[in-house]
């Protein structure tokens, strides 16, 4: 299934500056694996050493936060838009 993945500015060095790339996969896990295959190193910035989404990275499939859905097993239907959003801190 072809989906679009929105890449935050901080990770665009992995995508040659592209703000949005095409991904493939029936689940978020598959999309992220393919994304890391196409853009080596980006997966380690989204997933931690145990293979879970990093604590300060939010991922949405459409409007749904995957932490409140099925996590990495969240379905990614054809044409879905996935957004990777790093948390911003400050005061």
From TrEMBL:
Could you identify this protein by its name? Molybdopterin synthase sulfur carrier subunit
Superkingdom of source: Bacteria
Q: Which InterPro entries match?
A: Beta-grasp_dom_sf, Mopterin_synth/thiamin_S_b, Sulfur_Carrier/Prot_Modifier, ThiS/MoaD-like
SUPFAM superfamilies registered for this protein in UniProt: MoaD/ThiS
Taken from the record, one Pfam family name reads: ThiS
Origin organism lineage: Bacteria, Bacillati, Actinomycetota, Actinomycetes, Streptosporangiales
Q: Which Gene3D superfamilies match?
A: 3.10.20.30
């Amino acid at each position: 299934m072809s989906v679009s993945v929105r890449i935050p500015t901080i990770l665009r060095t992995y995508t040659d500056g592209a703000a949005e790339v095409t991904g493939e996969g029936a689940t978020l896990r598959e999309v992220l694996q393919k994304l890391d295959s196409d853009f080596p190193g980006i997966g380690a910035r989204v997933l931690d050493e145990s293979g879970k989404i990093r604590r300060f990275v939010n991922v949405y499939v459409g409007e749904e936060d995957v932490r409140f859905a099925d996590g990495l097993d969240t379905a990614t239907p054809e044409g879905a838009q996935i957004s990777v959003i790093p948390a911003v801190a400050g005061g």
